[in-house]
Amino acid sequence: MATDTAQQQADDKDLTLRLAHNSMSITLDTLPTEVVEVARHCLLDWLGVTLAGSREPLTRILIDEAVEEGGNPQATVIGDGRKLSMLQAAVVNGSAGHALDYDDVILVMPGHPTVPVVPALLALGEKMGSSGHDLLTALVAGIEAECRVGALVNESHYEAGWHTTGTVGTFGAATAAARLLGLDAETCANAMGIAGTQAAALKSMFGTMCKPFHAGKAASNGLYAALLSGKGFESRADVLECSQGFADTQTDNYDPAAALDGLGTVFHTPDVLFKYHAACYGTHAAIDASATLKRDNNIDPNNVAGIEVHVKESNLKMCNIESPMTGLEGKFSLRFTAAMALLGENTGLIANFNDEKVQDPEIIAVRDKITVVPSQEMGLAEAEVVITMNDGSVHRLRLDVETPESDLDRQWSRLSTKFLDNATPVIGAANARQVVDKVRRLEDCRDIGEIVRLCVASS
Q: Domain 281-400 classified CATH 3.30.1330.120?
């Protein structure tokens, strides 16, 4: 708890304000090169998955509701092209960006760092006419803030049933918007108070439209917090550390030392992990291990007697829908995704996660040979797959997908390909290529509206 000991009281003095000051002090020209480069990758990847998600039913429902409500047209809906109010656009774009669960993740949070932050920045930045330089600076500020809040409440918060993308992500959105607005540290800390009292998201909603809605609400609520704080709306500037505040009520393992570790010199942005399978990141290690075993041992699933997938015990509450009935539920099923990998299905293809596929008798036959085994020693993004053949032979492989890519040129190339695959069906090849080029040279972009206007469905 936040005030259990005198030591903790000393460690967390002015914690919220110190985090706010750090984020408001970030300037692009003083950041390490890799921090800026990975932030650029985050933006490109988010734009691609959001364009793909713009065609999802949940996105249409949210747009229809916003149009019915009416409002001042201030910010563009990615893909659709219509303008809504800033807060409405942030909800829609944030939800669309997480609709396919194909967006980036970071383990220190643990959650999806970009999807609550960029929708807030694009909505605000489009209205303000902000530059690419300023947006990139604010993006880093937001990611760094939410990662440190995530470190403060750590896995205890997530394992209790809170979806950190929606809860912790609200602080990231508020801090990023505060940075773009040019607020001072005290006003940002106040905005974090407004954000904290709105932060909510339940993991029980995984596999439903509410999971991506968490990201949209985090973006909108964080933006709203920064706007209100900038206008003098009062909150508390110690929301993270105060009695009955965010940490006090949201974690059993309060860790201010982790939140403040290397503040100003250590950056979390380079630890962002990108998805190349269109499913929950908790399934990725098992997918990779299954595909590798199949390839290296020429495994025919028909000759398999049984399969064990060993994962961290907490993953059972995240991605262990045993018998998914919809494509969306399939994204949160270790058994289904591992079965797809063993059958040679393309798990990077969004279209493969559909209602027909999860009910395919061939996939179900392999899926039902799989037993998910909880482990106390596995990491959050680690798995061991053990395949026993009918002849008694056993193949096993343990993999983790916890290490960020060290070759950033290679990462940009892979993400550019992923972006073009996701974006081209929506905005056309010419616009998609222009977006890649503009994000590559984001610091030279005078108005981020130039990029937004390219991200509209071709007629």
A: yes
- Residues 215 and 274: their CA atoms lie apart, in Å, by 17
Pick the CATH number of 6-274+417-454 from 3.40.50.2000, 3.30.70.920, 1.10.4100.10, 2.40.10.170: 1.10.4100.10
Residue whose tokens read 């993740």:
105
Q: How far is CA 245 from CA 116, 198, 406, in A?
A: 21, 12, 38
Q: What share of the chain is helix, strand, coil (3-state, %, to 5)?
A: 60, 10, 30
pLDDT at 7: 40
Q: Give the SS3 label for residue 357.
A: helix
Cα(24)–Cα(34) distance, integer angstroms: 20
Q: pTM of this prediction?
A: 0.91
**pLDDT for residue 359:** 94
Q: What's the pLDDT score for residue 109?
A: 95
* Residue 433 confidence (pLDDT): 98
Tens of pLDDT, residue by residue over 148-180, are: 999 999 989 999 999 999 999 999 999 999 999
Domain ranges of the chain: 6-274+417-454, 281-400
Beta strands in 345-393 (DSSP E): 370-375, 382-389
Whole-angstrom Cα distance, residue 329 to residue 337?
11
Q: Are 116 and 166 in contact (CB under 8 A)?
A: yes
Sites in the chain below the pLDDT cut of 50: 1-10
